[in-house]
Amino acid sequence: MWRDAALVAGKDLRVEARSRVGVNQVVPFALLVLVLFAFALDSDREVLAKVGPGLFWVAVLFAALLGIQRSFVIEADDDARDALRLSGLDGAGIFLGKAGAVAVQLVVLEVVLAVGVVVLYDIHLRSPVLLLLTCVAATVGLAAAGTVYGIIAAGLRVRDTLLPLLVLPVLAPVLLAAARACDAALAGAPSDGWPWVRLLAVFATVYVTFGVVAFGALLEES
Asked: Structure pTM?
């Protein structure tokens, strides 16, 4: 399973590195979202700093939707998804590989956006351990849930518009918990953030477990 996951993740990451869609489209889109929020709330810097964590994760979520769609679009041409089904790779390995590739891209995106938030919103980073664990747990949850619902929508003609409708309600708790944990960390009250991190860990575990168990069957039906 882990060997198959490494093969799939390596394939997806090589495709993205060669196409540079993430660098040329997804990252600028996410930064543009932050800039637009900054323009909208620039008259009140205190409000901008207060809502910064929530705006950060909204930008990550929007960009994650683009990344997840891209993860399955690359297999829509030339019957590549049929080739993936016939490859003999383990379904759980395929899920972990695709989710892992999405997670790696999200980590890079989050680093860029974190710099943007600090510069645009005048936010000072505190409690680095809490912030790091929050980002790790939230990224795993986003990537896992997005990959599961991405394969559900992949076989449908309206997949481009259906995926956000399917995945946004599921990811809303992750977005809320991540924003609250980051807000507590930035406010200098890490003790208030750890319950949200534990909640994020629960969501991530549930999404990963469901993906490992069900992805093979979902791939066959897509």
From this structure: 0.88
